[in-house]
Amino acid sequence: MRKRLTFHISDTTKFKEQLLFWSKKFQCVCILDSHEVNLKENSKMEYNTYELVAGIDALQIIEPEQNCFDNLKAEIDFAKDWWFGYLGYDLKNEIENLSSDNQDGLDLPQMNFFRPRWVFLLDVDTLLVHYFEEEFSEEDIYNLVMNIQNISVPKEKEVTVAEIKSRISREEYLKAIRQLKEHIRIGDIYEVNFCQEFYAEDTYIRPRQMFRKLMKVSPTPYSCFYRMGEKYLLSASPERYLKKVGRKIISQPIKGTAKRGANEEEDKLIKENLFSDAKERAENIMIVDLVRNDLSRTAAKDSVIVEELCGIYTFPQVHQMISTIVSELKEDVHFVEAIRQTFPMGSMTGAPKVRAMKLIEKYESTKRGLFSGAVGYITPDGDFDFNVVIRSIQYNAMNHYLSFMVGGAITMQSNPEKEYEECMLKAKAIVKVLKE
């Protein structure tokens, strides 16, 4: 049975670094950090329960090769414990009649969940540690937290990343966009999220050091460090996929981005322009409609509500247009079904979703792996919170392959050259973290 101990943490920034370093000795680690990004300024960020949620070390691992959601459901119902894990993008093939045959240098399982030995929850300056009383005494946990706080995190040597290559050329990218726009013109789809891969081979990185660098450049409310053996995800995600609180399901898709201004006055103007931008609003509303449809499959009658449409949220580097859609889960529906029926998230696929995913497979050159998937946790009460894996580095330390993907929403109004330039800007931001 799990027990809980409470501690006061005077320097939470330092403690997070110490916890990350201490986790180095374990094969299964998931650390989700909100960085207190706009928790007070932005009304809908109230849905962020903790500043940090971490699961460390695995008592049990779920990594099914088929019937993933059913296997996950069975293990959750049996253990009724904390679970941390991810949903890979290619779970789409289990949900719909789809396939994935593109290049894959990462070789990630399509699903990975683990039941942690320790759960750490940080709320402002209060740390809660969940542990098994059969395994540890209160004194053991007290000593554990004191030991973590006494860690002196060493400065690691810089590691040079090998040459970063693009999986497709500029000409191939432009051709794919033109072909996708033709699909839109004839009414095959309305919108599609098209991505390209950047990768490095024979590359040796220090994942924790790289994650710290990424967080300094881009602290975001749904960032994540995930380790499963020798495979890593370093994510600076600004987007929530799905959260459950009681019977309430919350989705917060992002569509629409603008750079921060040089000063407060410029910032205000940029936010006003983003809010009134017809193209950005159309993209956001299209995904809101898709999410409403997905949520309705598991929702109680008349419970799907758009709480906020095209809200403008400010982050350290960008402004984002975020909508909040909620529903009430039907009494006779298992919460895992709310995940199955909405995955993958519409903001990373397009509309109609299934047709968009078929075209993604046709025109992209790389398996997305964890990109466009989700990482999060499930509580013993059946509540959960998952992010959208974007702005992320994936790394396989076994074959020394590093990968990240960038892309954007393609609509009839999209200019292929401008879309390519936007991709290069997004890629440049990650390359800067890798190279400097």
UniProtKB/TrEMBL annotation:
One Pfam family here: Chorismate_bind
Keywords for the protein's UniProt record, in alphabetical order: Transferase
Entry EC no(s): 2.6.1.85
Domain Anthranilate synthase component I N-terminal: 83-123
Key word Hydrolase present: no
GO BP terms: folic acid-containing compound biosynthetic process; L-tryptophan biosynthetic process
Protein name, per record: aminodeoxychorismate synthase
Native organism: Labilibaculum manganireducens
InterPro entries per the UniProt record, alphabetical: ADC_synth_comp_1, ADC_synthase, Anth_synth_I-like, Anth_synth_I_N, Chorismate_C
Alphabetized GO MF terms: 4-amino-4-deoxychorismate synthase activity
Source superkingdom: Bacteria
Domain Chorismate-utilising enzyme C-terminal: 170-426
